[in-house]
Design a protein that fits this description.
The complex is a heterodimer.
Chain A: E1 5-7, E2 10-13, E3 19-24, E4 31-38, E5 42-50, E6 53-56, E7 65-71, E8 74-79, E9 88-95, E10 105-106, E11 110-114
Parallel strand pairs in A: 2-11
Antiparallel strand pairs in A: 1-3, 3-8, 4-5, 4-9, 5-6, 7-8, 9-10, 9-11
Chain B: E1 4-6, E2 9-13, E3 18-24, E4 29-37, E5 43-50, E6 55-58, E7 61-66, E8 71-76, E9 85-93, E10 101-102, E11 106-111
Parallel strand pairs in B: 2-11
Antiparallel strand pairs in B: 1-3, 3-8, 4-5, 4-9, 6-7, 7-8, 9-10, 9-11
The chains are: A mainly beta, B mainly beta.
Chain lengths: ~120, ~110
């Protein structure tokens, strides 16, 4: 398996622009997570899905952030409008409930820079 | 979720042992984990321990769990320059839903 795939790997945009980050989880995994990593706040869970349904979005910073999972093999995280403080590395991870120790598999991340 | 605390930075010489410490507060934690993040990459599971265990050894890695003090440690024997990375402690418990609760990570620098 190719692992969790994220695109783009790097994104540079200007304040006010819409940004869409994409994730393809590992085939057969039924949980998908979006995280944000910054030096100041470390790794933060933004939202997670189970069988394409959002379960907990309490980590989403504000209404400018939205996430969707239209099918089992694709998810997006959208920021509209983007702000410089959104600059961070965004990770997608997936897992399979049947795995006994609940391992999460992470993608390589998208490094977002908002100017 | 509950806080998972780690020291932010550790520097050791190549060949020495490294010990990375973590404290957690969720008494319902069932699994505790160490993830490794190499530069420019995502996190990768290094090892885990079930809450009814005190110790787990896997080649150069030793995980110690003190449930009474809610303290977890990762010892890396014969540390190599390739071990330089960020190490994250994480917990999974019934209070977390299905999410893992991560610490902020400890940056390990191994010098020749």
């Amino acid at each position: 398996d190719a692992g969790v795939i994220q695109s783009p790997r790097h994104e540079v945009t200007e304040m006010g622009q819409e940004v869409t980050l994409r994730c393809k989880p590992i085939s057969g995994h039924d949980y998908l997570f979006w995280y944000r990593q910054t030096m100041m706040r470390g790794l933060e869970l933004l939202i997670y899905f189970n069988n394409n349904v959002p379960i907990d979005d309490s980590g989403m910073p504000e209404d400018r952030f939205s996430a969707k999972m239209p099918n089992a093999s694709f998810s997006t995280l959208k920021i509209q409008p983007s702000e410089p403080r959104d600059s961070a590395v965004y990770f997608c991870a997936s897992s399979f409930w049947g795995r006994p120790y609940n391992e999460q598999f992470f993608g390589p991340g998208t490094r977002l820079t908002v100017l | 979720g509950e806080d998972v605390e780690q020291s932010l930075f550790l520097s050791v010489r190549e060949g020495d042992s490294s010990v990375i410490n973590c404290t957690y507060t969720d008494s319902s934690s069932t699994y505790l984990y160490w993830y490794k993040q190499e530069p420019g990459a995502g996190l990768q599971l290094l090892t885990y321990i079930f809450s009814n265990m005190d110790m787990k050894q896997d080649q150069r890695l030793t995980v110690l769990l003190n449930k009474k003090d809610k303290h977890l440690s990762l010892r890396i024997a014969d540390t190599q320059t390739g071990d330089s990375a960020i190490y994250f402690c994480a917990e999974y418990g019934t209070d977390s839903g299905y999410a893992l609760n991560f610490g902020k990570g400890t940056s390990l620098l191994v010098t020749p």
